[in-house]
Amino acid sequence: MIFDQVGIATMSQDPSIINVQSELVKSLGWALTEQDEEDRADRLRLMFSESKSRKILIILDDVWKELDMETVGILVGDRDNCCKILLTTRLQQVCDRMGCDTRIKLDALDQAEGLNLLRKHAGIDVADTTLIDVSKRVADECKGLPLAIKAVGSALRGRTADEWNVALDKLQNAKLDKIEGIDKDSRGVYGCLKFSYDYLNGEDSRSCFLLCSLFPEDYEIDLEDLLGYAVGLVWYQAESIEKARSLLRGKIKGLKDSSLLLDTDNDGFVKMHDVVRDVAIWIGKVEKKCFTSKIGIGLAEWAVEESLEQYRGISLVGNEKVELPSGLVCPSLHILRLENTLDGNKLQVPEYFFKEMSALKVVTIIGGVLSVKSLQFLANNLRVLRLIRCDVSDASFLGKLKRLQILYLEKSPIEIPDGLGDELSRLKILYIGTWSGSISPITINKFPQLEEFYGWIKNWEVEGMSSEESYARCAESDSQPDGSVVCLPNDFSFPKLQRYGIMEVGALYDIDRWTRCLDAFDRGTRCLIIENNHPKATLGIFSALYQNLEILYLSGVTGCHNIVPSIDERGLNELTILHVTDCKDLECIMDASKSPHGKSGNPVMLSRLVELYMRGLPELKWIWKAPGQHVISLQSLTELKVSRCNNLTYIFTLSQARSLVQLKSLKVSYCERLECIVEAKFDHNRREISVGDGNTILALPSLRKLRFKDLPELISFCSENYYSTWPALEELDVRRCPKLTVNSTELEANLQYLGEVCSLVFTFFSFFSLNFTQKDSLSKTFVISHSYHLAFGVLR
């Protein structure tokens, strides 16, 4: 390896030094806590100085003007001898001004290279003779420019020879001689990208492409942001948000297949090449669908000097202390995006700023100060409102925005009015993120068209609670952010939602757990978190969500004996992650013993569960109970952790254990009554199980980590005359399990597969120990006890 570390940052035309610093430290695996640009530069210089013994490569991509390395915090010069710097630029003068030692010019592709690249992206078979001549001529029109070749080739993929000839004619006759501010060499790229744009399937695909130019250069565009624009601009006549999301993802895939959008390292995000973005802005002007993005100071002056009447979308981004004009005259404006990238300085939105923008449908404000009252001029058309890191006042005016379909609040403290559900009858997505307040469950129930909800719900009590429960509930409310408790009727139930990330505001108010919930939402999952809640009806009010619930966290729930008393073949079948902790009354995680027969005959349950974590459940007797007609299949389970469940005597029945083909990690500790991991003879009602196949081997083919700790009653892994095999085992840790016995066949068969023993101390059972500290000292045979020898395979 030539370099020990590589740091990468994209500069763009208007670089933010703070963003450049952040990209560098992230790619180098470092961290900056300083907020001020100069303080961050000082810290970076110190980090580089302390890393002089390491070979570091710094890559600065897309440099447009001379950059003072000292302002970023990069050490340069022979005296420092810290790192090598590689920069990419389109401008020769940048290399001159920055004193580059070595310059490598990347020329255009030659004819053969260009043709091969075109054929690759167009999917042309080498044996197809019908396209040989025309593909050469099309490749020539792309002037050896990879970006142009990819776009044209992708657009012509699967086209006939006649369509190729039509495309060639369009490329040859494109009238691009008068593109203002574009040099002759760049016009070929513009023509090819315009050609690819024209070949997009559908007006909504072209609109989505143009919209992406609204975001700053090199910006990672969140598909959920694009969904908001799609809903606000009514691109799709979809009957639900979920279907609109699917349609949008299909269009995004088409744009990526056309090489007009790029993937990023983050799932759910895309980006636009800066040249493609320039072409999109140019196309918008030509087609009178103007989108513009202005970055930096001087926004007020820019707004006065330039006529904005033709613009459909405007993005104003300030990376210093900026002032907005008192208003903008934009009668055709549908999209407005205001952002201040510095946390310390916020954009002050004037009271009458929106007065001449009555056609606005989508408004995003990041880092602003505003009164909701200022949005009154948009009441007839505004469909999407996103407020991020905003100081908001006059929240009661939210109810005036009658056409609102998406309301997104992130780090924007606001008191949601209780009557908002009655007023915003068209709302479909409500997002109340971190530090943005909470909402009453009753209010959520009043939004008649709500499909997706993400946020905190207020603490509540249920009518008919005992005085002791009510007193405890009120005492708990004193620790809540707003000290309020909502009284729910006995028959209250949450509305059926398509997507959700819900956290009840419990006494712990666990921000880390809520962050995990939001991460789950970003992955498109459905998540429910209940913490420290007293009323018995707590879980019942969410019953409508169980059919598509994917992630469930329960902690501190009392008065509940099982999570789901009765479920059918659809209930919890989408569940992938289940964490249950500190629920003192819980006896069974899932009880399907009283469930009715399903239409599907023998319904399979929990087949998608990947992760299960149980801790502090003193009354837990069974993890799952199911009648004969139900099959609990744990075929996807990879990780199981059980701790401090003192009433549990076993974990799996034999049939359940045989479905554990993906289990990689099994950790069990501090379970006082646990006798075995797999109960092979009895079911949960202590009825004897008949095993007809005579197979006494339980194979766990994927198990890599096995840890048993402080299990005083554990006798064996499997009950009766069964034994298990773990051919993939890499780590075995057994401590303080005095009654654990195992036959020599099982032990030898499993220990010979151990792949990682060195540098660990394992205590196996009560009668022997292995203490390996030096890999070189290992031999293949060890005397473990006085009764038998064990032969080990090759230890890695």
Q: Can you offer a commentary on this structure?
A:
The structure is a single chain. The chain has 796 residues and is an alpha/beta fold. Among the domains are: 5-97, 3-Layer(aba) Sandwich (Rossmann fold), CATH 3.40.50; 111-260, no CATH class; 288-384. The protein is 25% helix and 23% strand. The protein has 20 helices and 42 strands. The strands form eleven sheets. It has a 17-stranded parallel β-sheet. Strand 39 (760-764) and strand 40 (768-772) form a beta hairpin. Helix 5 (111-122) runs parallel beside helix 7 (146-155). The chain is globular, with a radius of gyration of 32 Å. The relative contact order is 0.04. The model is unreliable at 466-483 and 755-796 (pLDDT under 50). One of its GO terms (biological process) is defense response. InterPro entries: Apaf_helical (IPR042197), At4g27190-like_LRR (IPR057135), LRR_dom_sf (IPR032675), NB-ARC (IPR002182), P-loop_NTPase (IPR027417), Plant_NBS-LRR (IPR050905), WH-like_DNA-bd_sf (IPR036388). Residues 543-672 form the Disease resistance protein At4g27190-like leucine-rich repeats domain. This is NB-ARC domain-containing protein. It holds the Pfam family LRR_RPS2.
